TrEMBL record, chain B:
One of its GO terms (molecular function) is ATP binding. It comes from Chelativorans salis. SMART domains: AAA. Transmembrane segments: none annotated. Belongs to the ABC transporter superfamily. This is Sn-glycerol-3-phosphate ABC transporter ATP-binding protein UgpC.
Length: 332, 362
């Protein structure tokens, strides 16, 4: 009884009284706007948040991309039109990044264009393989699920520092190689091995997340469908290609979209692990945008804004294609 | 010949023994129904025959050959699952042909078989649809069609009608029976519904806790249940049971006495029973005679169910033992009435203290 009284008191204080207080305001609003426009009044708080924190920055970004100088305040920035875009696209030959005025942009773009497909393919392939293994009746299944998910909970910086400790010249891996009588390798000094480890570390760090989603997808496939396939003389490969993959398609599509977006956004792990090096071998587009806008003096906000808008445009096109492909993909 | 022989077949899941050594012979072309309450091991037995479960011990022989170590697909059996287990992303045609493609059957032969099965089951116009676009009954047909195209020696049905509504269930029951007549294959059908068992089977196998309680033709089981379990399980509504004792054994027969009821003489050969033996008398609801003159057992009516063509009188003896009486046609008996009833001569079943049938020579 006392709890009920407290609750009703709290309800009166927190909801009923304020509601009564703003009732005249709402009535006034309804009189002025008419009942058809009233939903907008209720939508306003959320709309305001979206406009202010998501849409407004996009427009600010567009504004910055069309203005020059290293000044931060909009009023101080002179209008330069498409000059920033022209700078980015200023190249002797588009086949050779070194002829471009902003060659690092093109190298970062090129790296990203190689990094994303390789990393996404490796990520989904390994996550799918892991999920299929973890979906079987194996001993210590819960333990292994935990192990594979563990890196997802780590901060990106911790991931990068851990692997740096393993991969550096006097690191754990080389220590192991030396102990085995093999020649140590300077893993992060050579472009190809640095690129390989960039993919490896990011896959290691994020794979658990996608494995869990795929595992949930696998578990939603009914067991008796597999039994029917067994009675239907399907060999394991046919079961995988004709039953598992098609029935996992909706899940795979979600994983693919999430994976591509995350892959394009890759920044913190590599920034700490390789710093984009050696040279520019592992610099990706987001790191380029960060460096040009905030790290390298003078700060070129305009160019960074232009590059990020180009990236946004590419992601938008990609997402639209995905949404088109994802339409009408349900079997039940 | 595709007869099936199970020999000392047993199955355990860990420490739990589900089927403790079972022997059974099923003849070629028979329609056999495994029936029993939930958890009696009937589905496990079917899955052992299908090859979806591995037997712990014993042997399974199909047409004389041991298949115990033969993979499911090569045993010459096809299964219709309770959930249908259709491939949701494939069309009906692909569902029917998937198994045939897997064994690399020539394309024209696959097409011929699919068309033939579709025609037989009247699903020709559904061939290009996906399972989600079909009704429950249509999915059921597709599942049966998938089994037919494989032309198996033995069909296995795992409670295939349990997901259908009552009306459709009656319809499909008849269709499966007709299908059996047309194809002539051996069919094994699992159900917990004893009406399905009674109406469809050539032979019923009653299972309890993985043990066969009785095997026989439906009416044989109905008329001569071997023990209390079968007597109670086969027949709907179920048989009435009265506990009591044999008070006297004479040339005239056995005198049966249940508490608070007048003694009742079973005019039967004495058999192995002695006076004082504890017994259970079983009488089916339709095997009571209501007496007008006040002889027989006094039964108080608690509910009188009028089905129109039949009446079911839910009664109780003076000590509260429930007794159900079936009367053909419409009854004038109402709630609270006291009836006097006696088992009809020759239609009683006597079970000893261990629950086994006592032969009465009737």
């Amino acid at each position: 009884m006392r709890a009920a009284a407290t609750f009703s008191g709290a309800f009166t204080a927190l909801v009923a009284l304020p509601a009564r207080a703003i009732e005249p305001v709402m009535r006034g609003a309804q009189k002025i706007l008419g009942i058809k426009r009233m939903p907008w009044v209720f939508l306003f708080p959320n709309l305001a948040a979206v406009l202010f924190f998501s849409l407004l920055p996009v427009f600010i970004n567009i504004f910055y991309s069309a203005t020059g100088s290293d000044r931060l305040y909009p009023a101080d920035r002179p209008y330069v039109g498409a000059a920033n875009y022209e700078t980015l696209f200023e190249c002797g030959s588009y086949l050779d990044p070194s002829t471009c005025s902003r060659d690092l942009f093109w190298r970062a773009l090129g790296n990203t264009l190689i990094f994303v497909p390789v990393q996404v393919a490796a990520m989904i392939g390994i996550a799918l393989f892991t999920a299929i293994c973890l979906n079987r009746d194996i001993r210590g299944r819960g333990f292994f699920r935990g192990i594979f998910f563990f890196p997802v909970m780590l901060s990106p910086v911790v991931v990068a520092l851990t692997w740096q400790w393993i991969l550096q010249r006097n690191g754990a891996l080389n220590g192991l190689l030396t102990a085995l009588g093999l020649t140590p390798v300077n893993w992060l000094v050579f472009p190809n091995s640095a690129f390989f480890w960039s993919v490896f570390v990011t896959v290691w760090a994020h794979m658990g997340f996608f494995t869990i989603i795929l595992l949930a997808g696998l578990q939603s496939i009914p067991r008796d469908v597999y039994e029917a396939a067994k009675m239907d003389a399907a060999n394991p490969w046919r079961v995988f290609t004709r039953i598992t993959l098609p029935m996992l398609k909706p899940t795979l599509l979600v994983v693919f979209i999430l994976c591509v977006i995350r892959s394009v956004q890759t920044f913190d792990e590599l920034y700490v692990l390789t710093g984009g090096g050696p040279g520019s071998a592992t610099i990706l587009i987001v790191q380029y945008i960060y460096e040009i806008g905030f790290a390298i003096q003078p700060r070129n906000f305009g160019l960074a804004a232009a590059a990020s808008l180009l990236l946004g445009a590419v992601l938008l096109v990609f997402t639209l294609i995905q949404l088109r492909l994802a339409r009408g993909k349900s079997y039940d | 010949m595709a007869n099936l022989v199970l020999e000392k077949l047993s199955k355990s899941f860990g420490a739990v023994e589900v089927i403790p050594g079972l022997d059974l012979q099923i003849e070629d072309g028979e329609f056999v129904v495994f029936v029993g309450p939930s958890g009696c091991g009937k589905s496990t037995l079917l899955r052992l025959i299908a090859g979806l479960e591995e037997a712990t011990a014993g042997d399974i022989r199909i047409a004389g050959e041991s298949v115990i170590s033969v993979p499911a697909a090569d045993r010459g059996v096809a299964m219709v699952f309770q959930s249908y287990a259709l491939y949701p992303h494939m069309t009906v045609r692909q569902n029917l042909s998937f198994g045939l493609e897997n064994i690399r059957m020539p394309k024209d032969e696959i097409a011929r078989r699919v068309e033939a099965a579709a025609k037989m089951l009247q699903i020709e116009e559904l061939l290009e649809r996906r399972p989600k676009e079909l009704s429950g009954g249509q999915r059921q047909r597709v599942a049966i069609g998938r089994a037919i195209t494989r032309n198996p020696k033995i069909f296995l049905f795992d409670e295939p009608l349990s997901n259908l509504d009552a009306e459709l269930r009656v319809l499909m029951r008849v269709e499966i029976t007709k299908l059996h007549e047309r194809l002539g294959n051996t069919m094994i059908y699992v159900t917990h519904d004893q009406i399905e068992a009674m109406t469809m089977a050539d032979k019923i196998v009653v299972l309890r806790k993985g043990v066969i309680e009785q095997v026989g033709a439906p009416l044989e089981l109905y008329n001569h249940p071997r023990n209390l379990f079968v007597a109670g399980f086969i027949g709907s509504p179920r048989m009435n049971f009265l506990n009591g004792a044999i008070t006297r054994v004479s040339e005239a027969g056995l005198s049966f006495q249940s508490p608070h009821l007048p003694p009742f003489t079973l005019p039967a050969r004495p058999g192995p029973l002695r006076a004082g033996a504890t017994v259970t008398l079983g009488v089916r609801p339709e095997h009571f005679t209501l007496s007008e003159n006040g002889t027989g057992w006094p039964l108080t009516v608690s509910v009188s169910e009028q089905h129109g063509s039949n009446s079911y009188l839910h009664c109780a003896t003076p000590d509260g033992t429930p007794v159900l009486i079936h009367e053909a046609g419409q009854s004038r008996v109402a709630r609270g009435d006291v009836l006097h009833a006696e088992p009809r001569e020759g239609h009683w079943h006597l079970f000893d203290a261990a629950g086994l049938r006592v032969p009465l020579g009737n």
